[in-house]
Amino acid sequence: MEDFFIQNKSLITRAFEILSALIGIILFNKYRLTSAKYFIYFLVYVFLVDFIGDYPNHFNNYDFLNEFQSLVHDTKYEHNIWWFTLFWDIGAVLFFAFYYIKILKNSLYKKIINYCSIIFIIYIIYYFSVYWNDLFVISIPIICVLGGIIILLCVILYFIEILLSENVVTFYKSLNFYISVAIFIWWIIVTPLTFYDIYNSTSDWNFVFFKWQIYLFANIFMYSTFSVGLIISNPEND
Fold first, then answer.
1. 133-143 pLDDT per residue, tens
2. When you count CB atoms within 10 A of the terminal residue's CB, does the N or C end of the chain come out lower?
3. Which of 97, 92, 183, 83 is nearest to 139 (CA)?
4. Alpha-carbon torsion 52, 54, 59, 64, what sign?
C-alpha cells in the first residue's frame, strides 16, 4: 500500500484537486451571488498551477514537448521550485487574504489582514531584490512562514467573528467554515516541513518518502474538506 501511494502520489493529489474544482464548477450557480464564487475560481486556479507546474514530468512523458524542454534545459527554469513559490507560496496566500477581506464583516479585522498583506508583499519584493537566485533553488522558509502566519491570522479572525455572532449556532452550514478548517490544518502540517528541505535529497530517501506521505494525506484532507463543504453548505449573502 505504501509503495502504491508513493508511486501515484501526484495522480492521487491531482484527482482530488480535479474533484473539488469540478464540484465547484457544477455548483457555481448555487454560490454565484456570494463571495464563494471567488473560491471556486481559486480551485480552478490551483489545478492549473499544479498541472502547469508539473512541466518537468510533462517533458519526460510527452515527446512532443521536447522542443520546449530544450528551451529550459540547463537554465534556472529547468526545475519548478520557482513556479510553486510564486503561484502557491505567494499567490495562494494573497488570494486567501483577499477572500477573508471579502467575507469578514468587522472592518478592523479587514484592515489588519490588508496591512499584513501589504507588509508581506513589500517584504517579498525586498527579499527577491537581494536574494533573487533563491527563487530557483529552494522553497524559501521565511516566505512560507510569513504566508502561514497570514493564513492563520485570517482563520483566527474568522473564527473570532463567528464566535461573537449569532451565526455560531449554524457554523456547520457555512462553506467558509470548511475552507477555514481545511487551510488551517493544511498550513499547520505543511509549513514546518520547509525547514527540513535540506534533507530532501537522494541521500535520505526515508525522509523524502515521509515528506511525500505527509503532503499526500494533507492534500487529500484539504481537497476532500473543500468538496464536502461545497456540497453541504448553504450560500451566504454578502
1. 999 988 898 99
2. N
3. 83
4. negative
